[in-house]
């Protein structure tokens, strides 16, 4: 029982502690996950920034090299023509230009074409460089380039401005050259007799191959132009997809990844976005720092570095598994420690409680022993008092016997005097004899009363000292006890007595015990039912019902409280302990009625109304019952 009580207390506390530990570990796990995730993202961001920085630096360096080389070619051509004093478009002029272009094409592996274009957009001289092989394009194959953006946007005012066109694929005769040649053009204006545009095509395939090597196991590098088409992509099928398949909008980043495209358009430098389970870093890079006209719309590229979602997801899964494993281990370890601590605390508390209970039981047993001892002392005092009363009863019985003999002799003498006086009055009547006769009558009346009182005392004492069942009339026992309480009623004038008892209730039993029962009821009524100056009534009724005596004793006094009523017949139960009452009166009444007379008692009481005892006692007690 004690274990169940402690277990019922321990379980809620353990649940609260485990809930708190779980919440703490969840918060700590979430914090650890965010910490490592932020560190991973920061590391990825740093790696992507490094990749973007390297690729943008290489690209910018090449773009700057293109502008310098183009301007150098223009100056070299101008110087050579000026030194030879060649007229525009003479045969020697063309040879000089072709020779200069050929020598220039050999200086860089990036140069794929060198052209002289007339102001109207027609090619005049064109040199192709493929894998180190320099060839001049026949005049019949020269094309009109007036519709190309690099001719429309070429610088026309300042001759030292080099225009670098937007990035696209090399197109010949309206066909895309394969394999693809990502190309930019360096365009510079030529003035003088030989006016026009010097256009140098730079094949960036090797540059892109170099930039492609900047991708790592965690970071993929891509390049997107201002129109949203991939120039360089991890998936090669996406490169130049919008140009090759104009009807397939999925090949353009605008529709393929619209959220990323919005972020790219919103940035003007380095920007990062975490989307779709990966980190994206963008860097906007202008192809040409000086834009020739405001009509140019494709003069910039977006360098895009993104982490691999598969690798990042695997890393996230490993991180989550590690954190969950550590969290579960920590939860089990802490929960076990908390359980041990709580169990130890409750075990200590249980032992202390058991110790306190044992102490309380010992104190209770000690109090019971003290109470029992006190009751034994009270019982001893009661027995001593009973012994005294018994001795007093024996003395009263002897005194009544001694008094009864002389009082009987006096009565006989008075009877003789009365006979003599009656004779004298008959012979010679006189007032003196009449007065003497009246005096004798009064004396005889008082003497009769004295004899009755002595007989009553003698009967009471003899009944209480008798141990065997005997024949008696109930009204005699009741009247003898009432006679002894006449003086008490005189002192308690507010209390009246009503008796309804016939004279023919003959019983075989124990008149002494019956008188003790009535006496104890009177004592209780005077001690507890009525205050000293209270007013009330005591009603005693007796009747025969079949073979039983129905005897009731009722008072209109204070009544008995409900918490005491159920234990009024228990020994030593009393509300008058301060008045040295022992609480044995009603207990003895109960013992006499149930054990000695084989009857039973009913008691009813109401506080402020009164108390009523109803006794049912057999009219005839057998000798065997008395012996038991």
TrEMBL record:
Keywords for this protein: Cell membrane, Coiled coil, Kinase, Membrane, Phosphoprotein, Transferase, Transmembrane, Transmembrane helix
Provide the Histidine kinase domain boundaries. 398-621
Subcellular compartments: Cell membrane
The UniProt record lists the EC number as 2.7.13.3
Please write the reaction equations for the catalytic activity of this protein.
ATP + protein L-histidine = ADP + protein N-phospho-L-histidine
Which residues lie in coiled coils? 352-382
Q: Please give the InterPro entries that the UniProt record associates with this protein.
A: HATPase_C_sf, HATPase_dom, His_kinase_dom, HisK_dim/P_dom, Sensor-like_sf, Sig_transdc_His_kin-like_C, VP0354-like_sensor_dom
What is the uppermost EC class here? Answer: transferase
Q: Which GO terms describe its molecular function?
A: kinase activity
Which sequence ranges are marked TM in the entry?
Answer: 12-33, 319-339
Recorded topology in the membrane: Multi-pass membrane protein
Q: Which PROSITE patterns match?
A: HIS_KIN
> What's the protein called, per UniProt?
histidine kinase
């Amino acid at each position: 029982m004690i274990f169940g009580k402690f277990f019922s207390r321990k379980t809620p506390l353990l649940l609260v502690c485990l809930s708190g530990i779980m919440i703490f570990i969840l918060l700590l796990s979430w914090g650890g996950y965010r910490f490592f995730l932020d560190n991973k993202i920061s590391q990825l961001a740093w790696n992507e920034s490094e990749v973007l920085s390297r690729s943008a630096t290489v690209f910018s360096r090449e773009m700057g090299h293109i502008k310098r080389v183009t301007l150098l070619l223009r100056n070299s051509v101008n110087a050579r023509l000026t030194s030879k004093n060649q007229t525009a478009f003479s045969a020697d002029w063309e040879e000089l230009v072709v020779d200069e272009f050929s020598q220039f094409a050999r200086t860089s592996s990036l140069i794929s074409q060198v052209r002289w274009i007339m102001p109207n957009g027609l090619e005049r001289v064109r040199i192709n460089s493929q894998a180190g092989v320099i060839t001049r394009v026949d005049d019949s194959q020269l094309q009109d380039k007036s519709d190309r953006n690099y001719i429309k946007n070429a610088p026309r005012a300042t001759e030292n401005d080099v225009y670098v066109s937007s990035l696209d694929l090399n197109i010949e005769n309206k066909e895309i050259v394969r394999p693809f040649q990502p190309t930019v053009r360096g365009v510079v204006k030529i003035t003088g007799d030989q006016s026009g545009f010097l256009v140098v095509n730079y094949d960036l395939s090797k540059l892109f191959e170099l930039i492609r090597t900047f991708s790592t196991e965690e970071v993929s590098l891509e390049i997107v132009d201002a129109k949203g088409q991939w120039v360089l992509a991890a998936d090669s099928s996406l490169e130049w997809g919008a140009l090759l398949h104009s009807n397939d909008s999925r090949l353009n980043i605008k529709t393929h990844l619209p959220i990323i495209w919005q972020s790219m358009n919103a940035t003007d430098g380095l920007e990062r976005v975490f989307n779709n389970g990966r980190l994206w870093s963008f860097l906007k890079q202008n192809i040409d720092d000086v834009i020739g006209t405001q009509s140019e719309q494709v003069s910039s590229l977006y360098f895009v570095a993104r982490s691999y979602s598969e690798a990042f997801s695997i890393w996230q899964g490993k991180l989550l598994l590690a954190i969950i494993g550590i969290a579960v281990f920590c939860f089990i370890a802490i929960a076990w420690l908390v359980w041990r601590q709580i169990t130890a605390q409750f075990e200590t508390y249980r032992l202390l409680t058991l110790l306190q209970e044992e102490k309380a039981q010992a104190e209770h047993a000690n109090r019971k022993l003290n109470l029992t001892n006190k009751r034994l002392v009270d019982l001893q005092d009661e027995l001593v008092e009973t012994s005294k009363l018994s001795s007093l009863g024996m003395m009263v019985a002897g005194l009544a016997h001694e008094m009864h003999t002389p009082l009987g002799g006096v009565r006989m003498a008075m009877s003789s005097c009365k006979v003599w006086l009656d004779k004298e009055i008959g012979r010679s009547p006189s007032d003196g004899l009449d007065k003497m006769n009246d005096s004798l009558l009064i004396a005889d009346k008082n003497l009769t009363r004295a004899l009755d009182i002595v007989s009553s005392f003698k009967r009471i004492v003899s009944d209480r000292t008798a141990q065997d069942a005997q024949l008696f009339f109930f009204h005699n026992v009741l009247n003898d006890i009432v006679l002894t309480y006449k003086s008490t009623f005189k002192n308690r004038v507010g209390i009246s007595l009503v008796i309804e008892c016939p004279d023919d209730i003959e019983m075989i039993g124990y008149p002494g015990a019956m008188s003790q029962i009535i006496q104890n009821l009177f004592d209780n009524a005077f001690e507890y039912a009525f205050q000293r100056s209270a007013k009330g009534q005591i009603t005693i009724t007796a009747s025969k019902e079949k073979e039983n005596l129905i005897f009731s004793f009722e008072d209109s006094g204070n009544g008995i409280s409900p918490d005491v009523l159920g234990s009024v017949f228990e020994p030593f139960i009393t509300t008058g302990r301060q008045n040295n009452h022992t609480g044995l009166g009603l207990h003895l009444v109960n013992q006499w009625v149930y054990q000695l007379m084989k009857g039973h008692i009913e008691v009813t009481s109401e506080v402020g109304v009164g108390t009523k005892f109803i006794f049912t006692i057999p009219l005839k007690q057998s000798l065997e019952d008395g012996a038991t």
